[in-house]
């Protein structure tokens, strides 16, 4: 019965599907799952820095906001997938790294993760070009590429500033700078 409903649903999707290659559909699904993995990792980071023995409210807030943005990205692609007549396939989300030795370690990990996400977006854009899918190229360009580069610059700046500070006092001042007056204690 479930198989039957799946096939009917698939057929309904196909009715409005046009110039949308299976390879693009599959890579878009990978992108959705990458965004959700990043969402999960940022959430873990946010609550690591909220611990009472860490207490970095600025980083807590920053990573919480980052997590929400990644979920938004995943949902934006899911909405797009439905517009193109594709089928969304969510995979299980890998367990995130639970804790970090320092703010610098966490920010370096975030930058590495964003560079991987960006590479996947660039590969997706290249694939859309190969498959002559201008709509998908436009979707990626308009919604992701610039925002991705802007975000990476912010993370790289933070890494650089923390490397210069290079001490517990530096970490403390950096967190104050990030969260200046914004921590509500919630
Ligand atoms: Fe993202
Ligand atoms: Fe991101």
UniProtKB/TrEMBL annotation:
One of its GO terms (cellular component) is cytoplasm. Its EC number is 1.16.3.1. Fe cation binds at residues 35, 70, 73, 114, 148. Keywords: Iron, Iron storage, Metal-binding, Oxidoreductase. It is an enzyme of class 1 (oxidoreductase). Residues 18-166 form the Ferritin-like diiron domain. Signal peptide: none annotated. One of its GO terms (biological process) is iron ion transport. Belongs to the ferritin family. This is Ferritin. The gene is LOC108049019.
